[in-house]
Amino acid sequence: MDPPEDSEPDPDVPTFTQEICTNQYDDDGDGLVDCADPVCKGAKVCAEKECEDGQDNDQDGYIDCHDPDCEFVDVCHPETCASFYECLAVMGCQCTLGEDCPPKDTPEYQECQKKCYMSYNCRANCMSALSIETQEKIVDLQQCLFEDCTAQSWGDCFQGECLDEFAHCYLAGEYTCKEFFYECIFACGGNPNCYGQCYGDLSSQGYVDFIQWNQCRFKLCDADGDYVVDSGACWNIAGMYGCLDVSGGCIPSTTQGTCAGLEECVLHCESFGDAACLASCVEGAGIPAEHLTLVSELFGCVIGHCTGSLGPMTPACMQAAIEGPCEEQHIACAAH
């Protein structure tokens, strides 16, 4: 029987306006129970507890090691050179990562690191806690920095002269560049909070491939050096063709085609903004490894002219380029 419309709530019967995250009941009546309710997001009881079962246990959209709750779980946190600097923070402030240590990249976190680093015994304890292999990687990186990077910042050197040493020191994942870029980053759906774990899953070689590929793309498509690409069409052409010779494992392709066949396929795309059409050319016939330089030289020349005097970057501009200033590269490509 329904209560009378003018009845008052029984003061002895509890009512809830917010979800209680542990009672297996939909307290706020929104159809979502406990950890499935967004209001419980961030509650410790709803943190991801199983980090290698392939399930989104806390229903926050992130699975296993892609969930920030799993960041410091051993299975998601392999030893790298970063482990040394994390140890400095932990020992310096006698805290636990992910719990009571200050957030990374804050002055408070850096003060914790500095406190331990300034103590020889504390610093030595953090170093000796690492495997011999990781200790050797730290030494190799430091040696490269002090010998080869005296004229530039270490940040620039990490992506230049010491790229290999940095990658082997800090990257311990298994992703190739292609898996990182075409699978993990795309799966993040534009959520930057997801990108960090994608980077963490990169293998050292995958990281090197990605950095070199990215540097090439910006070199070709960022004429004013402001880290904003000149056009999406240029970015597509550079990534798939102009930088093919340095792309490593970044571009999905087979190896049965020819440089001439690839050129013809690209010219049949209605727009260079159509990434799907451009990708189909390299994913279809592909290109043998010995022809990669020919492809990159041809499309590098096209980009140089179609973002300059002949622009904009269109199939018509490419046709004009290969009939004019890029004719030499076109002839070399056509012969293979």
Summarize the structure.
The protein is mostly helical. The protein has helices at residues 82-93, 107-117, 120-128, 132-148, 154-158, 163-170, 177-187, 192-200, 204-221, 232-242, 259-267, 275-284, 292-306, 315-323, 327-334.
Descriptive labels:
336 residues, mainly alpha, 48% helix
What can you tell me about this protein's structure?
- The protein has helices at 82-93, 107-117, 120-128, 132-148, 154-158, 163-170, 177-187, 192-200, 204-221, 232-242, 259-267, 275-284, 292-306, 315-323, 327-334.
- The chain has a domain at 220-334.
- The protein contains 15 helices and no strands.
- The N and C termini lie far apart (86 Å).
- The protein has 336 residues and is mainly alpha-helical.
- The longest helix is centred in the middle third of the chain and has 18 residues, at 204-221.
- Helix 4 (132-148) packs antiparallel against helix 6 (163-170).
- It is globular and about 70 Å long.
